[in-house]
Write a structure and sequence with these properties.
The structure is a homodimer. Chain A is of the alpha/beta class and about 400 residues long. The first copy, chain A, has twelve helices and 15 strands.
C-alpha cells in the first residue's frame, strides 16, 4: 500500500482571498449602485509593452516554420536571455554575474517553492512575520521546523539578526510583500555578515526590485560576500507585467558552496531532471524587455504604479496614519485607525467607502492591526479611493 | 549551519547524450565530407501547426491591450483549456473526466518529477528497466528505495505484475520510451487489478498516446477501476510538437483516495502553493490543437513520423533483426546484430553508415545489446539512412 506525505494534512487552508471575495460579492449584491474600488490584489493591471508583444508574435511565427522551429531548449534557459539578465545586473546594479549563474524559470513562485529540494529536511527555516505565505507552506509540506522573526513598527517591519537569532535558512524579501518596506545597504550588510558567520543560507526574494528608485539595494549581491551565502529569486512578473506570461529567474552563484557541494551544480541537476525550460516564445518576450525602448517602457509602467503609491501615501500621511512602504514599492502597509483589527478596518473601508484592501492579519499574526493597499490600479481609481478615504 | 540534501551526492551523472555528442563531433571533424543522419534524438522536428501559431499571436496581442490583458491565471489552468482536454478524452478515448480532474502544467517532465511530493519517502518505487531516466533520478533525489521490473524480449519489454511483485508506486509508460512497445488492454487490466488489490499507485506516462493508431489503450482510464489507482501524465510535446512551447497536463481523478486523503485535493494544494500556472499565450496555443482543423493537422504531422517508422521497420524486418515498437510509436527498439553491445553497434553505425542512434544501455542494464532509433526525422533522411543500413 502506498503512503502519502502526511505533512499535507497539517497544512492550513488559506481562506484570506476567498473570504475577501465573499464579503465583496455580498456587498456588491446588496449595493448594486455603489462603485467598488479594489486595492487588494497583488497583480499587475497594465498590459505588456509593445516590444514584448511583437517579440512573442515573431517567435510564434518562427515556431510555425520548419527552418526556424525550436524543440527542447536548455532547461536553464536560452543563452540569449541569460546573457541579457547578466547585463541587466551589471549595468543597473553593478553586480557581476556569469550567465551560468542565472537559471530562467516559469516564475519566482516555482523556484522559491522548489529550491529547498536541495536542502535536508532537518534545517530550521526562519521566515519573517508578516510574510508571503509560500515561504511557510512550501516548507510545511516537507515537515520542516519553521521559526519566525517579527516585523513591527519599531523595526519598520524589517527585522534584523541579533545575538539570539538562530536557524539555518532565512527568507528575506525586499522590497517587501506585504509591507513595501525596503532594506538599506547597512541592514542587508548585517544579514550577509550574520549568514557568513553562522554559515546560514539566505533566500532573497527580489521580485519587486524594479520599483526601487532611491539609493537602496536592488540585489543582495550589491553587498560584498553575498555570493557565498545567498540565492536570489527574481521575475518579470512585476518588472514587466508577466504575471500571466510566466517567466522568472534565480541566481545561484558559483561561490555558494557548503560541505564541498556546489548549490549551482545541484540546482542545475534538479532543473535538468525535473524541469524542461520555459517556452521559447516567452523567453523571446522576456529578452525584449532588455532592449533600450523595452527598458524605457517597463520603467514608464512602473512609474505609473509608483505615482499611484505617492497619491496614496499623501492621503495617509495627511490623515496622520502610521505607514511604511508606498515608496520604492507598489504596496502601502498602514496601521488600522482607532485600534481597529485588520478585519474590522476591512469591513469599515468596504461599507463606508467601497474600497477593498487586504487585512494584514492574513499575512501572519504580526500583521494584525495593519492593512495592505496596492498601487496596481488606474490613477483615476486611486485618486477616487483616496478622495473617499479623506472625507 | 545549513545542511544540504545528501541524496544529491548519490546521483550519477548521466553522460549518455554528452558521450554521443562527443563521438559524433569527433567523427564529423575527422570526416567533413560525410553526411550524418541523426536518428538518436527524442525531440520533434516538425513545426507547430498554423492554428497554434495564429492562436498564440492573437493571445500575445490581447496581452498588449489594456482591455484584454490577463494577469495571474488559475494555477491549475484556464477552464477553456481544461474543458477541451476533457472533451478530447471523451471523444477520442471514451473516457469521462471532469475538468477539475485535469491540471495544466508546463510539461509532463515537471509533473512526473513533482507529483511524488505528495507521497511519503518510505514508499518503495518500482520502475521498469529500460526506462526514461527521470523516473529514477527524481526519486533518488528524495532518497527513496527503487526496485526494478525487467523488460526483455520474452515479455516484449512490457513487464507485468505477478505473485512475487512487491512495491508501492509503479511507473508505467505506454507507448514506451525508449522501446516503443505498447500495452494491450488485457495487459493494462492486469496492472490495474494488481494495483487495486495491493493498494498500489500507478503513475502512467501517456506522452506518446497520439501515436496509437491501432486498437490499443491510449489512456489508462480506458480500463475500469483505473480512476481509483492511477494518475496519468500527458503533454502537447509529442501530440502537437510543443517540446519548445511547454504545455502538459496531469489527470488526478477525484476517486483516487488513500487513508481518507484525496490526491486530487493534495495536488491542487501543491500546485497552488508551488506553481503559478502556464502562460496564457501558451494555453491559447494548446486550445487551438483541439479545433477540428487543429486535430486534423497534428494528426497529419504524426502520420509523417509514423510513415518514417514504417520505413524503418520494413528495413529492420528484411534484415531479420529482432525489434519492438515502430508501430503506434516514434521509437524503434532493435536488437544489436552479431551480439554487439549497444556502444559497439553505435560505433559501427556511425563509422560505417554515418547513422546516429541511441545505445539501449543508456536506459538501464536491460537495454544492453539493444538500440533505439527514432522516427523524428524527414522522410528523405529516413529513407537514406535505411538505404545505407540495408547494404
Amino acid at each position: 500500500m502506498y503512503k502519502i506525505n502526511g505533512n499535507y494534512a497539517n497544512l492550513k487552508e488559506s481562506y484570506l482571498f476567498t473570504d475577501i471575495a465573499k464579503k465583496v460579492a455580498n456587498y456588491a449584491a446588496a449595493n448594486p449602485d455603489k462603485k467598488l474600488i479594489k486595492m487588494g490584489i497583488g497583480d499587475v493591471t497594465q498590459p505588456l509593452i509593445p516590444e514584448v508583444v511583437e517579440a512573442m508574435k515573431k517567435a510564434a511565427g518562427e515556431m510555425g516554420s520548419k527552418e526556424t522551429f525550436r524543440g527542447y531548449g536548455p532547461e536553464q534557459g536560452y543563452g540569449f536571455l541569460r546573457e541579457k539578465i547578466a547585463e541587466y545586473y551589471l549595468t543597473q546594479m553593478n553586480v557581476q554575474l556569469d550567465a551560468d549563474e542565472i537559471f530562467v524559470s516559469d516564475g519566482a513562485k516555482s523556484d522559491i517553492g522548489n529550491f529547498t529540494d536541495l536542502l535536508s529536511d532537518d534545517n530550521v527555516i526562519v521566515v519573517p512575520d508578516p510574510v508571503y505565505p509560500v515561504y511557510v507552506d512550501s516548507n510545511l509540506m516537507l515537515g520542516r521546523r519553521i521559526e519566525y522573526i517579527y516585523g513591527n513598527e519599531s523595526n519598520n517591519f524589517l527585522p534584523l539578526p541579533d545575538e539570539k537569532t538562530t536557524g539555518d535558512v532565512f527568507y528575506l524579501c525586499s522590497p517587501n510583500n506585504p509591507t513595501g518596506a525596503v532594506f538599506s545597504r547597512e541592514m542587508l550588510r548585517k544579514w550577509v555578515d550574520f549568514a557568513l558567520k553562522t554559515k546560514s543560507l539566505i533566500l532573497f526574494d527580489a521580485a519587486y526590485e524594479a520599483f526601487i528608485r532611491e539609493d537602496l539595494p536592488r540585489s543582495i549581491y550589491e553587498i560584498e560576500g553575498a555570493k557565498e551565502c545567498a540565492v536570489e529569486f527574481c521575475s518579470f512578473s512585476k518588472t514587466a507585467g508577466f504575471t500571466g506570461t510566466r517567466c522568472g529567474y534565480t541566481v545561484v552563484p558559483k561561490a555558494l558552496k557548503i560541505d564541498g557541494m556546489s548549490l549551482n551544480k545541484m540546482w542545475l541537476r534538479r532543473q535538468t531532471t525535473k524541469f524542461n525550460g520555459v517556452s521559447y516564445v516567452t523567453q523571446r518576450g522576456a529578452e525584449a524587455v532588455f532592449t533600450p525602448s523595452g527598458l524605457l517602457n517597463v520603467r514608464k509602467t512602473i512609474d505609473g504604479y509608483l505615482e499611484n503609491a505617492k497619491i496614496m501615501t499623501k492621503t495617509v500621511r495627511e490623515k496622520g496614519i502610521w505607514f511604511t512602504g508606498g515608496v520604492n514599492s507598489p504596496y502601502l502597509w498602514i496601521q488600522c485607525p482607532d485600534k481597529m483589527s485588520s478585519w474590522e478596518y476591512f469591513d469599515f473601508l468596504l461599507n463606508t467607502y467601497q474600497v477593498v484592501g487586504t487585512p494584514g492579519s492574513g499575512f501572519g499574526k504580526n500583521g494584525e492591526g495593519y492593512f495592505r493597499l496596492t498601487a496596481f490600479n488606474t490613477k483615476e481609481n486611486t485618486i477616487e479611493a483616496m478622495k473617499r478615504i479623506s472625507k
